[in-house]
Amino acid sequence: MRGGCRLLPLLLLALLRGPCRGKGVAPGAVTCGSVLKLLNTRHSVRLHSHEVKYGSGSGQQSVTGVEASDDANSYWRIRGKSDGSCQRGTPVKCGQAIRLTHVNTGKNLHTHHFPSPLSNNQEVSAFGDDGEGDDLDIWIVQCSGTHWERDDAVRFKHVGTDVFLSITGEQYGHPIRGQREVHGMTSANHHNYWKAMEGVFIKPSMDPSKHDEL
């Protein structure tokens, strides 16, 4: 593919069915503007959303975990806070505040003080329109080094409610049978580690003038 994976137009992201790692994309830090799947390392499922609303709690778009690695509804775009602090191609720092926007529906990963339907932890939903939601869409990337590296297992801590993005294994029935509940937990533990997987990774730019604000 001429130009490598980083040149794929965003309009084609929903059609991607697996890893997209061209020769021009070297291993390294996850960057702002990248689109990727996130694997929960404890339960081996990917963070997923779809146009299915919760039947309880907030009634917002549900967020789940799925086992399939080729599911097109598991792509999330790395964005900054609404102040434009995350510029395209900039490595994401440990401790940085980000938003995760679901590619197919344009809603942001979100949590709030509603109980999750299966485990009675804190409900995690997808919220907003065309990437714009509210202050409860902001998460802090927790990792051990300077930047979020693709090979690292990281945590996402919610700024507004101090919970960690987690999965503990509860499974839904109809209409999303077999999908796992995603929720927020107050404790940092082995249920809330995530790793970057398949995706389109924006190569870091050495020229700040070529960065596009998200």
TrEMBL record:
Organism per entry: Eudromia elegans
Signal peptide: 1-22
A cellular component term, taken from the record's GO annotations: extracellular region
InterPro entries, alphabetized: MIR_dom_sf (IPR036300), MIR_motif (IPR016093)
Keywords recorded for this protein, A-Z: Repeat, Signal
Subcellular location: Secreted
All residue ranges annotated as the MIR domain in the record: 27-81, 89-144, 145-199
Record carries keyword Cytoplasm: no
Protein name (database record): SDF2L protein
SMART domains: MIR (SM00472)
